[in-house]
Design brief:
339 residues; Rossmann fold; five-stranded parallel beta sheet; 9% strand; binds adenosine-5'-triphosphate; binds magnesium ion
Length: 339
């Protein structure tokens, strides 16, 4: 499938630097790690690296490490031989093989389970892999581009991401700053998206009133460029600008109120944690502490989930834990979305 020429729009210093770097390193075969918040354009940069390289006519294979089902990750990445496990009734190529001598884009690399991180490191070092249940060495020719919206330094400190894999992946690293830190890009992006909408839908020119542009420049864009693009798409179907202005103002307010109040620590633990007044039945202190922690954790998680409409990725971001850790907690606390 051919992909349109990627255009990474912006005139801010950081975007100019990124565009320059992309041109410079696209043909070098170094691994590249792209970091930045959700919606800043990591995939667009990955596609640009591929597009401007000599590999551009070869496959670009995207792997979402977070969506790969745990027990199948290995066979998805490296393929399997017939009979490797129950249900493997014929040989299947893995994504590394599908990428051939093109580019393999490992998205959300921070979500890759530790055991697979070790395997991936070995494959990157040896430049070859084996299909699950197979002996034959398969040469890995694809160039690996990885991306994450997590702070991998922190994950390394926590022990959830291998530092040796981090160094292997980030021979070149590209960080894309959030849109709120490069607001001079906003007018260029607005113009670009409006032209795109006009060309795609054959609609008349849309002029953005100054008041709306001012709002765009003030707003903090938690969803970054993706959010701006969505607003403009909506604008093209809304009857008037006021609706959108009101929406942005409301969203600003909502986002401000999203800052979670830290749980109030009281002098004594909430009574519900301890059985009435009978000292004999008070559990060991460790258990009391575990229960208290669980209770405040549950409160914080429930509160955020409720505010963001059970958007788990957003919740993980606000609580500054990994998506995987959040899913684990939701399961452990037995939380489920309201009907
Ligand atoms: N500088 C830019 N110029 C033009 N379009 C952009 C730019 N940055 C982002 N976009 C557009 O914004 C949308 C989101 O970008 P992209 O999917 O690359 O973000 P991402 O960083 O991979 O986000 P996530 O972490 O949520 O996957 C896409 O439609 C992309 O084309
Ligand atoms: Mg992405």
């Amino acid at each position: 499938m051919s992909f349109p020429k990627p255009k990474f729009i912006g005139q801010s210093q950081s975007i100019n630097k990124i565009n320059e770097l992309v041109r410079k390193v696209s043909d070098a075969d170094f691994n590249v790690l792209i970091t930045g918040e959700s919606g800043v354009g990591k995939e667009l940069v990955a596609r640009s690296l591929h597009y401007y390289s000599a590999r551009s006519s070869k496959p670009f294979v995207k792997v979402n490490s977070a969506n790969l089902p745990g027990e199948l990750v290995e066979s998805e990445l490296f393929g399997y031989e017939k009979g490797a496990f129950t249900g493997a009734d014929k040989r299947k190529k893995g994504l590394f093989e599908h990428a051939e001598d093109g580019s393999l884009f490992l998205d959300e690399i921070g979500e890759l389970p530790l055991q697979l991180q070790a395997k991936l490191l070995q494959v990157l070092q040896d430049k070859c892999c084996h299909r699950v249940g197979g002996q034959k060495e398969i040469q890995v020719m694809a160039r690996v581009i990885a991306a994450t919206n997590q702070n991998l330094d922190r994950e390394i400190t926590r022990g959830t991401f291998r530092d040796d894999l981090f160094y292997r992946l980030s021979t070149i690293s590209i960080h894309i700053p959030p849109l709120r830190q490069r607001k001079d890009d906003i007018p260029f992006l607005v113009e670009y998206f409006l032209r795109k909408i006009r060309e795609q839908h054959n609609t008349p020119d849309i002029k953005i009133p100054e008041s709306l542009m001012d709002l765009f420049l003030e707003y903090h864009w938690p969803g970054n460029v993706r959010e701006l693009e969505n607003y403009l798409n909506r604008l093209s179907i809304l009857e008037n600008f006021r609706e959108l202005e009101e929406e942005i103002v409301a969203s600003s307010r909502k986002n401000n109120s999203k800052t979670i109040q830290p749980p109030k620590y009281e002098d004594k633990p909430p009574s519900s944690l301890l059985p009435n007044d009978d000292v004999e039945s008070i559990p060991p202190l460790k258990e009391v502490r575990d229960r208290a922690v669980k209770k405040v954790e549950r409160e914080a998680i429930e509160k955020v989930l409720f505010q963001v409409n059970w958007n788990r990725r957003e919740t993980a971001k606000i609580l500054k834990i990994s998506y995987r850790a959040l899913l684990y907690k939701i399961k452990g606390l037995n939380l489920s979305p309201p009907h």
